[in-house]
Amino acid sequence: MSVDEEEDAKRKCTHEVKALFHRWEEESDLDSNEILECVSEAVDEYYEEEEVEFESEIDLGDEE
Question: In this structure, what DSSP letter does residue 5 have?
Fold first, then answer.
């Protein structure tokens, strides 16, 4: 992955996370601190799992 591609991927990830925060702030009764607590807990749980299963809806094809 080139530096530009990596930066683009990081920017897309940041955009998706910000969109998620915005939606939760608008549609839930949680305040920003409560949302951040949930995010912290989710990150801890996600990265503590031994195996993470994920089925992408995006066809990446052969990357070789």
Answer: H
**Structural domain total, the chain:** 1
Residue 34 near residue 24, CB atoms below 8 Å: no
Q: Rounded CA gap, 58 and 9, in Å?
A: 14
> What is the domain extent for residue 36?
3-46
What predicted TM-score, i.e. pTM, was given to this entire model? 0.64
pLDDT tens-digit readout, 3-57: 889 999 999 999 999 999 999 999 999 999 999 999 999 999 988 877 657 777 8
Q: Is residue 44 within a helix (H) or strand (E), and if so which, with residue range? A: helix 32-48
